[in-house]
């Protein structure tokens, strides 16, 4: 969710014509290297951005589902002597996971670690669309692997909670004995209350609105702290802002749908849960809740937040709202011919400021 | 509350004569643009500062009233399985809201997001008075819209709390069933205890003093971290200081009047509550408490804090305490004629340091 | 506790000969001003450093004793509907107060806001001894005024707690009805347990050791983050480190003597309590506990921490451990004559790096 | 765990030939000093790095075991009037200890304060192997002394907890009266539950995996925030990131084995406990748990995390994954002869960027 320093993030347009030499050029730009030190480092260039996204989401999910497991499982008889955390701990865990996920990937891939962010940047900041599928795939895989590591870490405690290594069933009416709560709560959407307490007061519209609103707020802040003409976070500290931001979203907008605000954060762990024994029910629950609430709503909310920010605040050239019209282009061409440069800065010019 | 990077904030005096070209010049200063890329980007310049203030307060209120709602509503039977936060969470939420509000607006409008700050900067830092009404209007509107979004987000939970979608009544004697508590607490002044527990021990003088003191402390810190000759926050990190500051004010001075310390933060949500069914009572309560406690006291406290800081610490030219007298002006003119420049730096000179 | 940017702090030696022109030179150094804009700004130069220390401690005490009052008083029947904070809140409040106190004074006076720090810097960093008495007086006065403001802010709640506006008595055996607890805890040394629970297990040696150890740790960190050859905090962010540090000392070493670690933090509020009705008992308690535990122990602990840091880590010229011996001085003089400069950098030279 | 600014850390290779003049050169590089100001400052150069590691771990353990003691001991009857902290406090304390430990040592020794980090940096970042034993010895000694200071600080409260100054026995079945819990929990591995509750569900494999995973995550983040081509933490702020990171590991992965993730953090305090009366049992418990869980697992986990980061993300020359092969070396030599410099930057070249 931080785009500064991203080689292919906000500040560059990908022409598409020099596709194959892209990574090498990027590598050169950093190091003045024209040949690779060895074969592996050459091949690595083609996967490095995607591995960074994979790693970022993996780290996010290790912290996030980790804190969910620790706080809830520590209350189970026989697992721990006292509860190891609180709701505030959970907010901290997800905030920290987001920050660490971006710190390990920000300079390589831009640190999106969220398909909703990737799609919004492709729409409003010139992130190349052709990379979007690879980014999203890497992000979901990172979520799956992160959840698997946490599942392995808390395997025995989960067994105690569930009643045995082969019990992986859905929740029933009562809270005690609700297995799905553990499953969806930890590795899915965290909205245990929706399942266990049958909180029918949360209509589908409300669930959708809650994710939509929180993701819109997320994108407004993400775009602002990467906007050089607003109040950008200092280099290397965008993840600190994200830590505080996600802590706040968890504290303020987290109760109703557990603030997925990130399709990969939900889908990756959900895939894991279907693999370890919970089966297809994780997708069919509440008319395909998994699809419209933690996936579609964040993607659309991210679009809405980005649109608002760009329409009213952003002046950078990458945004569709600031595309030059015919008059501006004509003026620009005249200026180029006469040697005066007083047009809107073109892509990349911002780096020279 | 952060003035660094504000194009029209602390560091510039507005001459008034070149009023209409103001925004465009500012825009040029950033980008060397003499024509606008398109029509919308031209019109946007005239509203961008005000939209930034609107957006900043809106974000502040989404986090602030959001955390109020989440922590209190999650205790209502049928809403959640356990309380989703604590008093410390509330302090975090308001601190995070302030930080995020400034991060999304700081570089555009100066990130005041508080009429008391705007008025104090106009008095002591040369912020143009003619912009003050527009700023305050934008701030109050931002509070209104932010509260509306949170109200929509927690609509169903509020209904459960109130007893139904059409019940929006004032508090009665008992805590259970106190509807006004929810209302004022979440969207108003948060001082639920004053209403519900009939805490007559808090006299009007005490309420006024509490808001006055907290806002004076707020302004002393805000002016200090924007004072280049003191210990200014690094570029882009003033909001981090504000996060910690508001967290502290909530923890230390927040019990008695719920630290409004910001007229827009109270009036905006209060307007929303009168619209959604609580009516005029929100204004008539306790001899127009809404006016003298969360509006007048913060404005005067901000003046007092600024006056103390400027009288004893600040040496910048913008402050009335550092206006040159006749002798200094005469010296300055002589120096200008002789080519020596050893006078107090005039407005704008600071930018050349 | 932050020495960077302090005009007369660590990095300069005061020759003593140009004493009267000192402030003006300093002022000039910032602004190229040779005359003062007006009379007040001229007189202000002579008091500004001391006012900054006063203000810094005042802010520290407002947050610190404020959070003490809020957390404890909110538990009293009739004061609030629920507890407004926890032990962690108290740790946060004191950490935030320290950070804010340094942010408002750091660039003016060095932001010591602690007599133990001032004395240690005079001993080990060349801070002029002649300023030490004025600094300490200003710090204690700041503590007194800060406590008075908090006392005024919570006056009515304290009355409810004490049983009336004229009841200001010492603690008796039982916790309920212990008035001294409120007094010493909030405005004194916070070690309510020593008084109320008669925790004789805490011997005088243990009390002394606890303050000694915590202040030694404090100084090691303070010196490290101001040591340009170690890992200094970025400009403007030393208070952030102090926030985290004080939060940690409160969490880890705060239980036994309530981590005064600052003579002004204890003595200022203690003076206030003797004025508002508690009388001489606040000084006679436990064989003049007020003197040897929260005053002498921190001063000696600060010396010990500084000594350790300078003996093993610090290489700067200001420290007595790095004073050049005769051979080094002779080498230096030869080098000066021959035009080569390869001696230990003299005072002030560090600023040219 | 921060390697920036470390004179002998990541960015330099130690040739071994100029071993004795090493420190002096380093000293010169900072200050242009060719002779030492006095005899002590000359001798100090030979031990300064090791003292910094000692001091860093000592500070870490003071905060870490300090918060353990405070939170648990304050619940014992007669020790305090209320619990002074919570599980979240403990997470804060260890995070703060880590940050402060690095802040006081980062610029001198690199701030490893963890043998697993030291070994990983020797393997993957060219940290000289010949310094590794000295570093580890200093780290373990720092842990021992830090634990001794905390033990002295809480001596009387521990006596109340244990039942007397000469009672230092192992835990029995019941929680009340479990002495080993205090011992191992505070000064050992914190995994009180393993001992007291006989949590046999935590198999040896699970214990090992938990430490392995947490340390791998630690190293991925540590390497990322010191990687200039990723998103490095700003100078002086790496400890802030570590504070957040350790807070997160405690919240998310801390329940099962108490996240030793640092052999010195466990072994140092464990040595102290065997000295003060707990004897050999601290080593024989559970088939030498002390060796394979908090020592071997973190070392191997650190290797795994570093290997992953370097294999897929890191492009710096120091890593074995980026060693130039024969072709690259030949190309480099040709380039050197022809004056063109387009090879991978050699060691030290990075500093010129």
Automatic annotation (TrEMBL), chains A, B, C, D:
Keywords: Membrane, Repeat, Transmembrane, Transmembrane helix, Transport. One of its GO terms (molecular function) is glycerol channel activity. Coiled coil: none annotated. Pfam families: MIP. It is a multi-pass membrane protein. One of its GO terms (cellular component) is plasma membrane. It catalyses: H2O(in) = H2O(out). It is found in: Membrane. Belongs to the MIP/aquaporin (TC 1.A.8) family. This is Aquaporin. It comes from Mycena venus.
